[in-house]
Amino acid sequence: MNQRPHGHRLRLGRHSEPNRIYLITAVCYRRRRVFADFWRGRAFVASLREVENSACTLCYVVMPDHIHWLMQLAEESNLSQTVQKVKALTTMLLRDRWHGQVWQRGFHDHALRSEEDVREVARYLVANPLRAGLVSSARYYPLWDAEWL
């Protein structure tokens, strides 16, 4: 049985819709806890600021071994290229703090449907550290932000 991750298959059938809201999940290579260190987690946040012309960040949560990013894709932007740029920038910013591969190939995206409540999705994301048992309250977790909260 092949034990390789299938992240490369996540690209199949993907297309970008300008102004669409997407929930992106990207996983660290072999689920390593790259972002367990606060400053390494901040590298991902800094990368989000670098792509503000391509995507408007609505919410993010940086977990120790993966990230969730709720964003609205800008006009004339490409989803795969935007996510790839964030991942590449994060890797570049981490070169002095992490040795080795940062990301698994590919990413998961979910295009929100019109009936989905964006704020409810953001609340769900922000609660991830609680569900994982990392903190007793979201206010104690430093690696998240949401436009409304």
From TrEMBL:
GO biological process entries: DNA transposition
Protein name as it appears in the record: REP element-mobilizing transposase RayT
Organism: Microbulbifer yueqingensis
Molecular function as annotated in GO: sequence-specific DNA binding; transposase activity
Database matches in Pfam families: Y1_Tnp (PF01797)
UniProt superkingdom: Bacteria
InterPro entries: RAYT_transposase (IPR052715), Transposase_17 (IPR002686), Transposase_17_sf (IPR036515)
Span of domain Transposase IS200-like: 17-128
SMART domains to which the protein is assigned, alphabetical: Y1_Tnp
Annotated signal sequence range: none
